[in-house]
Amino acid sequence: MRALKLLVLPVLFLAFCFTSCKDFKEAQCTGVKGFKINKIGPQGIDADILLGIKNPNHMGFSIYRSEFDVIYSGINLGKAKLSKRVHINGDTEKTYSFNLKSNFKDANPMDVMKLVTGGGKGMIEVSGDLKAGKFYLKKRFPVKIKERVDMSSRD
Hints:
Elements: H1 2-20, E1 28-41, E2 44-55, E3 61-72, E4 75-82, E5 86-88, E6 92-103, H2 109-117, E7 121-134, E8 137-150
């Protein structure tokens, strides 16, 4: 029994070493597919941003809590945080919903009023790093997207 334990431990260690040597390709953000405002007011914004993500790896991984800078039509909305972990499947390109919450503590009050009363199409810029990984392997993927979106569709 003891000899079996001594044999299993090195085999597991070698298996772990060989599987962790696989090349981990960088995930790609294919763009902003949508932007939906859940709630907006003088104190902050709660929105869902739909990002297309392509995973060229055979194995899936998770995107952990990440932080983005969000600018809409030249108005800095501040830091927006990914509120929960999202699992990305392997060898797929899908659209994933990220819940973004931000307060307007650093924003100009006139710009906030333009956002609250305005709408229509505007340019949204999302920049930051997606923190992704599996088990103990974690990596940052830079994201810098600038696209025109329709902000008038509020539910």
